[in-house]
Amino acid sequence: MKTGKVKFFNESKGYGFIVVDETNSEVFVHHSGLAEKVRENDRVEFEVIDGKKGQNDVNVRKIES
Fold first, then answer.
1. What is the pLDDT along the chain (65 residues), one digit of tens a residue?
2. Which CATH superfamily groups domain 2-62?
3. Could you tell me which of 64, 58, 22 has the C-alpha nearest to residue 42?
4. What are the structural domain ranges in the chain?
5. Measuring CA to CA, which residue among 35, 39, 36 is closest to residue 18?
6. CB 3.0–4.6 Å: which of 22, 31, 49, 54 could bond 14 by disulfide?
7. What single string gives the DSSP state of each residue in 4-58?
8. CA end-to-end distance (rounded Å), the chain
């Protein structure tokens, strides 16, 4: 599992971006990839998969800071 921080998440549109700790890159997250609700600045763990339009985060769960 990778770890990172939620940079942005728009609940009404159902998507956002997570900054990956390891690479400092941003990866797209769709609400369907969330295991629980997230907000900006939440620390999370997740898996990265290849989606139709690039990489997506899935199985996103909050972790302690």
1. 999 999 999 999 999 999 999 999 999 999 999 999 999 999 999 999 998 889 999 999 999 86
2. Nucleic acid-binding proteins (2.40.50.140)
3. 64
4. 2-62
5. 39
6. 31
7. EEEEEEETTTTEEEEEETTT--EEEEEGGGBSS---TT-EEEEEEEEETTEEEEE
8. 16
Per-residue pLDDT at 53: 87
Distance CA 31, CA 25 (A): 19
Mapped onto helix, strand or coil, the DSSP state of residue 65 is coil
pLDDT of the residue at 5: 98
- Token readout for 7 is 């940079």
Is-contact 43 53, C-beta < 8 A? Answer: no
